[in-house]
Amino acid sequence: MPPLDDSPDAHDDRRERERARRSEVPMGDDDIRARVQRVTLRQQQFERHVAATLAVDGPGLEAMDHLISSGDATPTELARRLGISTAAMTLVLHRLENAGHIHRERHPHDGRKLVVSAVDHSRDRARDLVTPLIDGIERVVDDMDAAERATVQRFLDRLIDVYDDALGAASPPPR
């Protein structure tokens, strides 16, 4: 990793970029880092909005996301997907069940296991919240030509690699 530039000008530049990333201050035309930061912040804001609208916490929202996108699962499978203990998963599922978002039933082939399912009205409400975002992203992608898509894909693949490197090769990302 190259050494960081500790000059006063470099500190001022980093501070200015950080201020732009976290606010609505106009960004320079070439400040990709600020735009990536803003996308990350908007994603976090959107997830908080969905969680608040559904009246769930972060782990509950993540569990709902898995149930809606991947289908029914056992509590152990969900715990593994979320990277939490089965005891913590039990608490998450209690909160989701008490809020009317999920139901648990005996596994059809193994009566010792439970299967967790998202309740239809919660699945529908979550989809209603997320569909406009998905449709908007689809429109953005559809508006790009092949060369633009290839450039963005290369950039995003490299960005994913940076995150994977930061997480460490010994601990691959969950899911």
- Following the backbone from N to C, one meets helices and strands in this order, namely HHHHHEEHH
Given this structure, which CATH class is correct? Mainly Alpha
Helicity level: 55-70%
Report the biggest beta sheet as strand number plus sense, adding barrel if it closes: 2 strands, antiparallel
Strand order of the largest sheet: 1-2
Distance between the termini: 28 Å
Explained architecture:
With 175 residues, the chain is mostly helical. It has a single domain (44-167), classed as Winged helix-like DNA-binding domain superfamily/Winged helix DNA-binding domain (Arc Repressor Mutant, subunit A), CATH 1.10.10. Helix content is 66%, strand content 6%. It has helices at 8-21, 32-54, 58-70, 75-82, 86-98, 120-142, 146-167, and strands at residues 102-106, 114-118. The chain has a two-stranded antiparallel ribbon. Strand 1 (102-106) and strand 2 form a beta hairpin. Helix 1 (8-21) packs parallel to helix 2 and helix 4 packs across helix 5. The protein is elongated, with a radius of gyration of 21 Å. The two termini are 28 Å apart. Pfam families: MarR. Residues 29-161 form the HTH marR-type domain. This is DNA-binding MarR family transcriptional regulator.
